[in-house]
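Regression check, nicotinamide-adenine-dinucleotide case 499:
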Amino acid sequence: MPETPADVPVLIAGRWETLAADRHTSVFNPSTGHAIAQTPLGDTGLVDRAVAAAKAALPAWSETPAVERARVMFAYRQLVETHFDELAALVTREHGKTLAEARAEVQRGLEMVEFATSVPTMLMGQTFPQIANSVDGETNRHPVGVCVGITPYNFPNMVPLWMYPIAIACGNTFVLKPSEKVPLSAVRLAELLVEAGLPEGVFNLVHGDKAVVDALITHDDVNAISFVGSTAIAKYVYETGCAHGKRVQAAGGAKNHLIIMPDADLDQSVKALAASAYGCAGQRCMAGSVALAVGSVGDALVENLVDYAGSINAAPSDGNETAGMGPVISAEHKDRVASAIATAETEGADVALDGRGVESGDSFLLGPSVIDRVTTDMSAWKNEIFGPVLSVVRADTLDDALAIGKACPYGNGASIFTRSGYAARQFKRHFNAGMIGINVGVPAPMAWLPFTGWNQSFFGDLHIQGTEGVHFYTRQKMTLTRWFESAEESHADPVWKTK
Ligand code: NAD
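Current build output:
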């Protein structure tokens, strides 16, 4: 009989616990199709305990000097680096992306911790001496309080690290609810955080689904919410959190367009497009999912794409360094992606490369697909497929391509491939998305720059990462100071005289 997979623990007030939950969901290894752990789905009682622990830890932690808080992040950074390969292997095991992709993810996460070590400098305020007669002005940044992070399945390591290192370094306390599909990376990251010397209760980890999310985003003692996931849930979390008086940043889904101009270096562009569309099996919010072929480039582009994508070694990735693309997250998701390809066919598109037939065994593997002659009335253009599928839309001119971008309700990333500075400039200024690439397949910023999604790809004002991340996790206070000259200072004793 196969062993029953172990329950994933929660961390409350510095103690690891196995929850006595009524409901569980399985964590799968997408390379084998086997369940490797059970995620307990918590309830409001769990949320109450986690938020109470975070609230209790807040006074001491927020008063801890920022340089001491940063020192914990320095220790954490060292531990994440020491355990780098183990963390990457865990991402591959529970998510399915290749080891090289998992390493890249952990590297991006590590950079967030590096960024958090520099937070003390970013907390320094501004001063304006003599802003009025005998009055000095200054600003300071204060923590917002108890912060919550709710994360998606597609970056089990990096997206949690987008949130809590900055929040904690800014003096807040934190409750993380990772995706119930990939909780193992979050558990290992939390163990390392405890080892780094973080005081009990500053960081707490809970597991669950909608019930836990709802309890977190409406809890009286929660002050700020960071969410990353699909658009429908991002909008719901934003609206519900705001209605309950919280500060919310909520990043949603995407449909990222890659424009290929007729003057582009076709070879380089095809490689960049394939890396963008099929990296992490297309399960990235910055994945290029629509190629906009402008003018005469369409046929050559599709021919080269089909050749190149067809040569990618799609294979189970766990323990297999030769896999060029891994499986998707679940059997259900594999079916969803396959049915999106079928719908495109029914709606009149041309499946130029079909990944549905790939030999997958028990894994959740799909091969790369190219769908040609997609138009903007088809669901392949309208909906986020979130799998290894690139749709090709033909456009006559750059203006037509910009208009297609404008009609897209999302607005995460977009790239252009061209040798023309003029075309690149027009695109940079006018494309309707918040993250722009010029001859770059995945224009995803690193820790020091904000992740500036637009439209239905982001709800809120202050984005994740960079200075905006620090601003999200802090409140500004402005102080005006005036000291009155006393009779003693102005008349009696000459020791007080300054002029
Ligand atoms: P998801 O929206 O299904 O889940 C995200 C989180 O929300 C999980 O923790 C989940 O437990 C919770 N959740 C799910 N349903 C809920 C509900 N009904 N009520 C309350 N909470 C709920 O997203 P996913 O499938 O895990 O992740 C993929 C999505 O995330 C894609 O749409 C992708 O584009 C998006 N994403 C966006 C970014 C970005 O920066 N914009 C980054 C990564 C992923």
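Comparison notes: The chain has a mean pLDDT of 97. The chain has two domains: 10-253+453-480, 256-409+413-438. No diff flagged against the previous build.
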